[in-house]
């Protein structure tokens, strides 16, 4: 499988694009949730720019470069602990197959059905594939092909 490496300058450009999209919508958030591992670094970087607390939802469906059919939640985030009407930005490094984002959306729906007025979530990813770009609200870039994406912090 071919790899495409995104170095820090490229990541900074992707983050600027996402921040610009957020500013255009005038969205205001109560917190950010980074999807561990890959989404934590961009979530923290966005958190600094927006002056927001960042939490972690540690989840994985990969073993190395191979996607599995199940998810392992190794650090949970309880959406029902949020205040009624909270607005949350959920950040990942890449929306590849869309399975992780869909898993999280189901988790949010289950939790927020418990909370009156629910929790509103927007989703951001540094990169999305063409087939998954509609799953996120903000993206740094849409990529074609199926190459394995490597960010500077992955090496």
Structural notes for this entry:
The chain has three helices and eight strands; from the N terminus they run E-H-E-H-E-E-E-H-E-E-E. The protein has 155 residues and is an alpha/beta fold. The chain has a six-stranded mixed β-sheet, with helices on both faces. A two-stranded parallel ribbon has the order 1-8. Strand 3 and strand 4 form a beta hairpin. The protein starts with a strand and ends with a strand.
- Give the CA-CA distance, first to last residue: 17 Å
User: Could you tell me the strand content as a percent range?
Assistant: 35-45%
Q: If you compute it from the alpha carbons, what radius of gyration comes out, rounded to the nearest whole angstrom? A: 15 Å
**How many E-type strands?**
8
Tell me roughly what share of residues is in helical segments. Answer: 25-40%
- Helix and strand succession? EHEHEEEHEEE
- Tell me the major beta sheet: 6 strands, mixed
Shape by Cα distribution: globular
Structural class: alpha/beta
Brief account:
The chain is built from 3 helices and 8 strands; from the N terminus they run βαβαβββαβββ.
Short descriptors:
3 helices, globular, 8 strands, alpha/beta, 155 residues, 6-stranded mixed sheet, two-stranded parallel sheet
What's the SSE blueprint?
Elements lengths: L2 E4 L1 H18 L5 E6 L3 H11 L3 E10 L2 E10 L11 E9 L3 H14 L7 E10 L8 E6 L4 E4 L4
